[in-house]
Amino acid sequence: MSLFQPITTHTAYIPGANNLGIVLTDDGGAIAIDTGLDRDTGRLVRRALDEAQRQLRAIISTHHHADHIGGNEYLVRNLPNVAVYAARLEAPLIEHPLLEPIYLSLGATPPSALRTKWLMAKGVPVQHIIDGDAIEIAGTTLEIVALPGHSIGQIGVAVDGVCFAADGFFGPEVISKHGIPYAHDVAAQLASLDRLAMRKERFFLPGHGALTPQSELDAAIRINRLAIERAMHAVRDALSEPGDTLTVARRVQRTLGLTITGLPQYAIFVAAVAAHLSHLESTGAATLIMTDEGAVWRGGS
Ligand SMILES: [Zn+2]
User: Fold this and answer.
1) How far is the centre of ligand 1, averaged over its atoms, from the C-alpha of 183 (Å)?
2) Quick one: 10 and 134 in the same domain?
């Protein structure tokens, strides 16, 4: 069986823990939309393309998270003339992946536990900055869908009846495993869900989860929205007493009954709680004040 799962005439994907999107260009080439966690997923893309006798023309990295850009370096190093495309605010983090564990470490040089492949890929130069709402690669026009929120400048790609939505939404089966859908900016994340809900493509491919036909999109988006709201309520409830960010995170973890065993998962969880705290502050539901005990969040204003 082919490694590619066809979606429409010009689109396909390689299913997995990280779905890898493929756009088939009219010139016999292909564009990869994200490359997965590491060298192995890069190799998988290469094998699938060899099998289909297609040459990789470009990689579009939807956002900088290590599980989406981990195969970039392998592909760029091993295949000729692969151009990398990314949104303006994502590009520096794709070129310098150490920045991800740095921001998860309060800006400090990260501890070794946060320098694993789960949080730190190998960097590649980004040749093309995506600013507008469309790009053309190898004669194929791709629509760019702004999906910020999960990360600072995440994009989706729409072409030939398919919206490659990256982590703009998660499959319902994935949501049930995560306490909080990771967010950088909760308001932007919710607005991006609204933007996705308006789209008319026949299929939507999340970075994690099953290929979603248009008929199932509303339900999937509703589940994502509920998970974000549940997290928001848990963070607000955790402010019934003042507490610093880590204290709030501990209370939220208890409320949601989350078992977090690894340091990378913990760092990601704390960052998501911090995003919810900032969001609550912007709505007037939380304030950050300086005390003898350090910076402390309080509920209300
Ligand atoms: Zn992500």
Assistant:
1) 9
2) yes
